[in-house]
Amino acid sequence: MVIIVFGLPGSGKSYFASRLAADLEADYVNTDRIRKELFTRPSYSDEEKILVYKKLLDEVYHHAHAKKTLVVDGTFHKENVRNDFIKLSKDLNLHLRWIEVLAEESLIKERLSKKREFSDADYSVYKLLQQQHEPFDKQNQHQLIQLTSTNTNIGQMLEKAKKYLLDKNHS
Q1: Burial of 31 by CB count in 10 Å (0-12 exposed, 13-18 middle, 19+ buried)?
Q2: How far apart are alpha carbons 51 and 14 in whole angstroms?
Q3: Among 17, 50, 94, 144, which residue carries the largest CB count within 10 Å?
Q4: Rg (CA), the chain
Q5: In contact, 11 and 149? CB cutoff 8 Å
Q6: Confidence tier at 138 by pLDDT (50, 70, 90)
Q7: Three-state secondary structure along the chain?
């Protein structure tokens, strides 16, 4: 199974995704880490994003043969990027699930004001990606759950996510 955790910068997706991976004893891959490996000074340009998500697609492809659950963490704010992963999952017969992490904008602004280990995204990057964000395709919404992050609800989020992942009606 491939679980894609997505949301805008500062939403809490990486914090959540890394803990979900640990709870599930799953492998974990993150666009921020890939970006840091590929670029010493990330610009978050469209060209850069294309290379990051291509590398991420390669990771999913190579991981598919391991038959182990993989948690993928990134913004996935563009429909064409999400569609590339949907196509790959169909081609490889992978079970693909989507978890969108949301948060109040005031909390996002607070989170983005602090230094984070891998991400250089600040509030201006958040605003740019918020403007560029394309809604999730209604055809695939049966594969999606949305979770709202606060600074105190990680346990509840993990429980909701695990119930969703076990629910056969969302397959």
Answers
A1: buried
A2: 20
A3: 17
A4: 15
A5: yes
A6: low
A7: CEEEEECCCCCCHHHHHHHHHHHHCCEEEEHHHHHHHHCCCCCCCHHHHHHHHHHHHHHHHHHHCCCCCEEEEECCCCHHHHHHHHHHHHHCCCCEEEEEEECCHHHHHHHHCCCCCCCCCCHHHHHHHHHHCCCCCHHHHHHEEEEECCCCCHHHHHHHHHHHHHCHHHC
Residue 50 CB coordination number (10 Å): 12
Q: Which span out of 47-61, 105-119, 121-135 was modeled with the highest average pLDDT?
A: 47-61
- The tens digit of pLDDT for each residue in 2-54 reads 999 999 999 999 999 999 999 999 999 999 899 888 988 877 788 888 999 99
pTM for the full model? 0.90
Angle between helices 79-91 and 46-64 (to 10 degrees): 20
